[in-house]
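Example record

The entry below shows one chain as it appears in the dataset: sequence first, then structure tokens.
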Amino acid sequence: MTYDAAELDRITKRGVAEIISEEEFVRLLQEGRPLRLKMGFDPSRPDIHLGHVVGLRKLRQLQQLGHQVILIVGDWTAQIGDPSGQSVTRPMLTHQEVIDNAESYLRQFFKVVDRDLTQVVWQSEWFGKFTLADVIQLTSKFTVAQFLQRDDFAKRFAEHRPIAITELLYPLLQAYDSVQIESDVEFGGTDQRFNLLVGREMQGMVGQKPQQCFLMPMLVGTDGVQKMSKSLDNYIALEDPPNDMYAKVMSLPDELICPYFEYLTDMPDEELAAISRDLASDPGGPMGLKKRLANDITAQFHDGHAADAAQDNFERVVQGRGLPDDIPDFVEPSLARSDDAEGRRLSNIIFESGLASSTTEAKRLIRQGAIEAINDSTGETRKLDRDDRIAQLGFEQRIILKRGNRRFVRLVGQ
């Protein structure tokens, strides 16, 4: 099969940080045979966010060209942990935790990747038969010096911080996955570069054709600074409700508009280049473009109707400072008790209603002016600045509490 230059560019450049080796990969494509595309996932966490979608979209693109995805459930490596630049290892999981997380992951994975063109395999199919002798043989193929070339290992070693021996096993086990399925191409973020190269080298050691390594760019999160991560709370999850997903995209810094269009949508390259030029010359352009981006992404993981409704909600609630239609009720008993005239502290109510994770956080939010009280009858809004008792607001019993632009709760008496 022959690909023209424009199509090869879309495959090898759009949403790709690096291919090792691009020349070899293009030669494989031109051979015309279905390639075995490997992606592994560590089911230590069940959630997928838009950062993962960058690689998943590339898998789907290649599936549509006739290639097969082999998705490996890392039920063994999940028990070892791979810090990927972090300073701590992940906790070992029980077998049931792995299964539960995998089910959640697969449900989200197939929102992007074609289920019918994907083979799902579990590492336990081969590692379940491993003996100590097999492990020792595997470790004999590489030296500690080689593994200390990995950036996060080298950094921790230089700083005299611990590196568990089990962590050194992770790249070996991931590499052995490639051998077992005879991977042609493996996909991972740029933080997985070392691990993918170990797989490529191990395949060569056993006489297989070394896999090509597709390294995907790390998507910057909603804070505009660090890579998208659940632990940093700067992520947009695939299972976020439509209103939340839309609003989170709208909260992105303007400089992320073009990267998000490039990595997460099918916008043609020519239009993307024009938008980049427009953003540089038109200071009033970002709002309309960001709404288009938010609508596109929300529609991908919900549907067009939900995306349009989310846009209407954003324009009414955030831009128009109105109220959403689906504010949850929180029963606040002190509103209905005559023997508790002043009511409870606002910090307790904010915490128990779910607007904060603790009373300490609630007090901090109040000090920062991050909580507003709205009179549900008159619309009067007051930014809280003290941890008063509820009656001191003077709003009688018709009170809505608001945190930020997306979180509301209506206080009701019993």
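Notes for this example: The chain has three domains: 5-216, 242-319, 329-412. Residues 165-181 form the longest helix (17 residues).
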